[in-house]
Amino acid sequence: MTPLPWATDEPLVTPVKPQRPLFDLLTGSPVSVNGSGDSNPPLLFPTSNNQPTPTILPLPLVAPPSNDSDLQQKLTSLEKELAIKSEEISALHQKLKESADKVSVAEDKLQQLASEVTSDREKHQVTMEDLKSKQENGRKRKEKEWEEERRKWEEQ
Asked: Whole-angstrom Cα distance, residue 23 to residue 111?
């Protein structure tokens, strides 16, 4: 069984022999690491012998704002844009509120029509029952009349 790497006395990372100086990213000039004027500090990214050494390029500087008036103008334009958007949102909110009111009125009308239809249905149902009973009564009356006429004919 092999021992775990941290259980041995050997260092996990082998130190790198300095091969190339570090550069100041802003000026591009060599920098001493320990203040002793060492012009050959260790590399940030050590490379093997068959790979090329990476080139460290200076970072581009961000230009500071030219003056406060530019920032003030930008802030003013953003505030105007915000005010316009706020007005648009208020207008949309008002339209939404009006639409909700219209929907509420329409729902009330729909409910009223539904109750009218229900009551008309009930009235129609009663009317149909009445009509059926009247038809039945009329049929029975006609049958009685025919029966009486038939008796009269039979008696004669």
From this structure: 82
